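Quick one: C-alpha coordinates for this chain, please?
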Amino acid sequence: MTILVTAASGQLGHLVVDALIARGASPDSIVAGARTVAKAADLADKGVRVVPLDYSVPESIDAALDGVDSVLLISGS
Protein backbone atom coordinates (compact mmCIF):
# COMPACT_ATOMS: atom_id res chain seq x y z
CA MET A 1 0.00 0.00 0.00
CA THR A 2 1.36 3.41 -0.99
CA ILE A 3 0.31 6.55 0.84
CA LEU A 4 0.67 10.13 -0.34
CA VAL A 5 1.21 12.71 2.40
CA THR A 6 0.47 16.18 1.08
CA ALA A 7 2.24 19.31 2.34
CA ALA A 8 5.13 17.08 3.39
CA SER A 9 7.61 19.95 3.32
CA GLY A 10 5.86 21.57 6.28
CA GLN A 11 6.22 20.81 9.96
CA LEU A 12 3.12 18.60 10.27
CA GLY A 13 3.86 16.77 7.02
CA HIS A 14 7.38 15.96 8.19
CA LEU A 15 6.05 14.71 11.52
CA VAL A 16 3.52 12.47 9.78
CA VAL A 17 6.11 10.93 7.47
CA ASP A 18 8.51 10.36 10.37
CA ALA A 19 5.70 8.78 12.41
CA LEU A 20 4.76 6.44 9.57
CA ILE A 21 8.36 5.28 9.29
CA ALA A 22 8.68 4.92 13.08
CA ARG A 23 5.56 2.71 13.09
CA GLY A 24 7.09 0.40 10.51
CA ALA A 25 5.99 1.77 7.16
CA SER A 26 8.60 1.21 4.51
CA PRO A 27 9.94 4.55 3.24
CA ASP A 28 9.43 3.40 -0.34
CA SER A 29 5.70 3.04 0.37
CA ILE A 30 5.42 6.74 1.22
CA VAL A 31 5.08 9.55 -1.29
CA ALA A 32 5.75 13.03 0.05
CA GLY A 33 4.04 15.80 -1.87
CA ALA A 34 5.67 19.19 -1.56
CA ARG A 35 5.20 22.52 -3.28
CA THR A 36 8.94 23.10 -2.86
CA VAL A 37 10.62 19.74 -3.31
CA ALA A 38 13.95 20.98 -1.97
CA LYS A 39 12.34 21.55 1.45
CA ALA A 40 11.65 17.80 1.66
CA ALA A 41 15.13 16.67 0.61
CA ASP A 42 15.72 15.12 4.03
CA LEU A 43 12.72 12.85 3.44
CA ALA A 44 14.19 11.75 0.12
CA ASP A 45 17.41 10.93 1.96
CA LYS A 46 15.35 8.52 4.10
CA GLY A 47 14.09 6.71 0.97
CA VAL A 48 10.75 8.49 0.66
CA ARG A 49 9.67 9.42 -2.86
CA VAL A 50 9.29 13.21 -2.95
CA VAL A 51 7.11 14.67 -5.71
CA PRO A 52 6.10 18.20 -6.65
CA LEU A 53 2.55 18.89 -5.48
CA ASP A 54 0.93 22.29 -5.61
CA TYR A 55 -2.81 22.52 -5.01
CA SER A 56 -3.05 25.39 -7.51
CA VAL A 57 -1.46 23.29 -10.29
CA PRO A 58 -3.91 20.46 -11.12
CA GLU A 59 -1.37 18.58 -13.26
CA SER A 60 0.91 18.20 -10.24
CA ILE A 61 -1.93 16.59 -8.29
CA ASP A 62 -2.58 14.04 -11.02
CA ALA A 63 1.13 13.17 -11.25
CA ALA A 64 1.51 12.91 -7.45
CA LEU A 65 -1.41 10.45 -7.26
CA ASP A 66 0.19 8.03 -9.73
CA GLY A 67 0.45 4.63 -8.04
CA VAL A 68 -0.97 5.89 -4.74
CA ASP A 69 -3.54 3.87 -2.77
CA SER A 70 -4.30 6.33 0.09
CA VAL A 71 -3.94 10.05 0.66
CA LEU A 72 -3.44 12.03 3.82
CA LEU A 73 -4.49 15.55 2.86
CA ILE A 74 -2.86 18.20 4.97
CA SER A 75 -4.55 21.46 4.13
CA GLY A 76 -2.58 24.51 3.15
CA SER A 77 -3.20 28.10 4.03
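The first helix runs from residue 11 to 22.
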